[in-house]
Amino acid sequence: MADHGNDTSARAAGSGPRNGVSGEGSAAPALSRRRLLGTAGAAGAAGLAVGASGGVLGMTMAGGEARAALATVGSTAAAFHGRHQSGITTPLQARGHLIAFDLAPGAGRKQAAALLRRWSRTAEELMAGRAPGDDTGVALDAGPSSLTVTFGFGRTFFDRTGLEDRRPAALEPLPDFSSDELDRARGDGDLWVQIGANDALVAFHALRALQKDAGGTARLRWQMTGFNRSPGATSRPMTARNLMGQIDGTRNPRPEEKDFDERIFVRPGGEPAWMAGGSYAVVRRIRMLLDDWEEVPVERQEQVIGRRKSDGAPLSGGTETTPMDLEKRDAGGRPVIPANAHARIASPETNGGAAMLRRPFSYHDGFREDGSPDAGLLFVCWQADPLKGFIPVQRKLDRGDALSRFIRHEASGLYAVPGGCEPGEYVGQRLFEG
Ligand code: HEM
Question: Which residue, among 281, 287, 250, 267, has the nearest Cα to 373 in the 3D structure?
């Protein structure tokens, strides 16, 4: 069984002033807590004192101020500490921000290390549902809402900080792909931060707190905002849908698979040593040509992917989780999953085993001059080595993917995301001090 560090340890929120829960150890399971609060609500009894640990979980704050109870969505928290950073194997959140910063002129290794220390402290506080010192109050009455904050280093970071000798070989620039239409101003960057939360205000709150922490050390380079379906919006848990309406993420590597860690995380003893437990994130802003796509009949759309739109099952038959039968042919001898179907071309079976964990957000940034939506996928994928994940797969997709007609890659970044940290440490410490 793979060890996923901290990422599967979502739990009910701990104590803290921001989520209105007082008392050490008040992290009761979300369900029992919701039931208890439901009981309080039904009785109309603000101030009902409950809690397995003896903490006060009711609706009255110190000073008698009444606050609404947190629902499960708000009260769930991801752990900050652990072998891996959170936000990689954490379930997709409803809201996301991707942000890149460049170090300010004059800021070097020392200032960068101090920034990572500040950012780590802020992330730890916010992920536990606690407000930072000079809080804006934006998320005052919300719980942590599964907030995750993930930090990474871009290739240029190492030149700016004199740490060239510690730059991972895996940060070699991505190759140019023939279909790229990249806006360089919205790509790369010295530092990269991924924020995810199941509440938009909680996510924005974190974004602003981290931007303030950057102070004079780092300046915003680009920022993108994305979304996924809200927890509880569907009657049965299912893989995410993207803005083309497809079920997306079905064939992702799964933590229970024995080679999961090897594919997604840098192993202990890997190169460079400070990246042990870390992963490489490839970020692509991919606009979808939705006006064109939506004119295509569903049967044709399904041929483009190789899977049914309604339930994600492969065109070769079965349910969403049935393996694709790439050999199956129709009565006319043609492959049932077309030769240029996206899922066929991208599958590990046709790429020497190359695999990655895709964890995207959808985005919608209004409409373009021609009236078409500026919308698509903030594609984020994770792998232990981009040469065994994104690069070979994208090379192949670039040559013959039926989906290419309906998408445009508009921005690109590649980041080294170090492993997680233990209490008392900060993210990236082994890079600076190892
Ligand atoms: C807007 C762009 C994209 C869309 C809409 C899209 C959509 C999909 C869909 C619907 C599937 C089938 C279900 C699944 O297994 O998740 C899929 C599979 C997959 N996609 Fe994409 N994709 C996009 C871009 C990419 C890119 C850029 C890559 C990597 C270079 C990629 C890699 C994969 C992989 C590895 C699979 C799994 C194939 C398999 O093992 O069956 N996709 N994609």
Answer: 287
Active site residue 248: yes
* E-assigned strand segments in 107-256: 148-154, 191-197, 218-227
Stated length of the chain: 434
Lowest mean pLDDT among 30-34, 102-106, 275-279: 30-34
Are the C-beta atoms of residues 117 and 427 closer than 8 Å to each other? Answer: no
State the Cα angle at 187 between 345 and 224, rounded to 5°: 90
336 alpha carbon to ligand 1 midpoint, in Å? 18
Q: Residue 82 above 70 pLDDT?
A: yes
Domain chopping of the chain, boundaries: 1-10+30-40+76-434
Q: What share of the chain is helix, strand, coil (3-state, %, to 5)?
A: 25, 20, 50
Q: Report phi then psi at 159, rounded to 5.
A: -70, -45
Dist. CA 16–CA 14, nearest whole Å: 7
Q: Is 305 in the pocket of ligand 1 (CB under 6 A)?
A: yes
Report the alpha-carbon distance of residue 407 to residue 289 in Å, rounded.
6
Task: Please choose, from the candidates 228, 279, 330, the residue with its C-alpha nearest in 3D space to the C-alpha of residue 88.
Answer: 279
At residue 150, φ and ψ (nearest 5 deg) are -125, 130
Report which protein residue has its CA nearest ligand 1's atom 40.
Answer: 347
CA of 353 to the centre of ligand 1 (A): 15
Angle formed by the axes of helices 109-127 and 200-214, nearest 10°: 160
Give the H/E segment covering residue 214: helix 200-214
Residue 68: the pLDDT is 59
Question: What is the number of other CB atoms lying within 10 angstroms of the CB of residue 325?
Answer: 15
CA–centroid distance, residue 97 to ligand 1 (Å): 21
Rounded Cα distance, 141 and 116, in Å: 27
**Structure token pair of residue 430:** 């082994």
Percent of the chain with pLDDT strictly greater than 70? 84
Phi-psi category of residue 245: left, alpha or beta, with phi > 0 → left and psi -120 to 50 → alpha: left
**Cis preceding linkage at 17, omega within 30:** no
